[in-house]
Amino acid sequence: MKAVLERLPADDRALLTLHYLEGWGLPQIAAQFGWTHTATKLRAWRARNRLRNLLSDTATHDSSS
Questions:
Q1: Which of 5, 12, 17, 35 would be a feasible disulfide site paired with 39, CB 3.0-4.6 Å?
Q2: 41, 16 contact by CB (below 8 A)
Q3: 48 with 16: CB under 8 angstroms?
C-alpha cells in the first residue's frame, strides 16, 4: 500500500494520509493547506479515485503475472 501511495501526487498523498491515517477532518485539512472546504472535498474525491485506479491497476497486473 505504501508503494501505491507514493505513486500519488504529493497533495493527494498528504490529504489521504491526514484524513484516513491521522484522523483529520476535511475542514482541518482545508485550513492547513489554505484550500476552501469545497475544494478540499473535491480534491479528496479525486485523490480517492486516483488511489482506486492505482490499486485496480496493481491488482490487475499482479493477477496476470
A1: 35
A2: no
A3: yes
